[in-house]
Amino acid sequence: MTLTLLAALFVCILVVAVLYSSVGHGGASGYIALMALFALPTASIKPTALVLNILVAGIATCTYRRAGQFRWSVFWPFAVTSIPMSFVGGALQLPAIYFKPLLGAVLLFAAFRLVYRQVENPVPPSSPPQAVAAAIGMVLGFVSGLIGVGGGIFLSPLLLLFGWATPRQTAGISALFILVNSIAGLLGHVSSLGNVMHGSAWLAAAAVLGGLLGSALGSRLLPVPAILRTLSLVTFSAALKLILT
Question: What ranges do the domains of the chain cover?
Answer without folding.
Answer: 3-244
